[in-house]
């Protein structure tokens, strides 16, 4: 509000408004007084005209009864009449509404009207009479008494009366119209006052607002030049300045956005350093690395970088040359490149690019381990195949039984090689996600019990007690590929029996754990050392050779089992204690009934 009063527009508007308001007030008061008097005079003239017309009707027709129909048409709305041939008594009357008798009685007894019966004078008087619409209520009426000739020797009077409520309503409507006109005039005055003032101050005000917008960074702001004088020329210069600023800022923003997009989309971590070794800019991978390093790497200077990188940064800033190295930081491998940044001729900082080589190192190690494991696993059967096949070719076997035994060994070793290749292919398909599962809804108790009982005869031959227990509801079911789960159970039970000595026990137990079926294969074998438990599901894992009891496998069974269970949305893990036994446990999600 203070801004309006302190502006040229506000002062000019207030001056014009006060002037016009004073004029309108004087004109309204005078007009209302004039309209009130004019309305009163008009009502009296109307009543006198109606009375004169009624008198002429009676004079022309003579008979009062025949004249009543014409009199009703003559009387205006809300106007009533009383015809009295003698004082204090009404001969005929026309009254619309209630309280007619009381009204006639008061009018006829009014002393001021008695002289009308004796003279030709017309009397008009304002009186308080009963209301025509409500009982026990008085209203103001204007009553006109006019002489009338009702017979040759009879001098009568006609009384015409009308409620002043009609006059008040008419005056009220007139007043409303006057006030509405005054309000419209006020609005028009305000509009034209602002129109006139803005024509004077609008260009300057627009330039002021435009300058504020430019200060906020809105360079699209333009000021309209409405004239060719100095103010118009100033507006033109202002717009040119805004366009130039916008162009330069857009160029800067484009370069900044391009750089930001490149940095954000890079998989490598990029960190820009100032000359004082503070970090100026970093992309999301770099920020993630810095957060990992903070608190994990000991640094006496409270640097967020490892000491090796700090030394590289100091070298670049000191000698102004690029440096590349591969470092191991917090268990991860990075190929790091530091390059100097120049400002004109002096160095103003450095940029570091870190390429994470951890996955490449892991894959390289896996490749080397895989080649070593496969070579180790294939060396024995290949050597045996070569040795026995050469023996057969050289006719080393003296008897037919010895040659048959050599052929049997060659056959078994070839089968072992086939199983190894098949397991490798299955594991590769599972890990790549190309192995298709044929799922059906199966009741768990019956399926696990059937898979367990397949090994009952083998258990008896090896002197091992094999049992099955369940606390799961017989109706509990899940959706799975039965053949693949049977492959898991076969591997786990076979491992348990191979690692359990004669007289031991293998227990298959089924129970419910939240929304999963928990299946565990427990043996009383020699157990697995705790430090080896986290590696049992890796390919080609074998613990102590003594645990195999001379019955070694390919080393891929548990890796395949782990992938099958994970493909079903489950989980598999192992618990063991050396000398007490081992438990392999896997979870399968139950189907909601």
UniProtKB/TrEMBL annotation:
Keywords of the record: ATP-binding, Cell membrane, Kinase, Membrane, Nucleotide-binding, Phosphoprotein, Transferase, Transmembrane, Transmembrane helix, Two-component regulatory system
CDD domains for the chain: HAMP, HATPase, HisKA
Subcellular location: Cell membrane
Enzyme Commission number(s) of this protein: 2.7.13.3
Catalytic activity of the protein: ATP + protein L-histidine = ADP + protein N-phospho-L-histidine
First-tier enzyme category under EC: transferase
Chief location bin: membrane
Xref: Pfam families: HAMP, HATPase_c, HisK_sensor, HisKA
Any one Gene Ontology molecular-function term assigned to this protein's record: ATP binding
Domain of life per record: Bacteria
Protein name: histidine kinase
Organism of provenance: Planococcus shixiaomingii
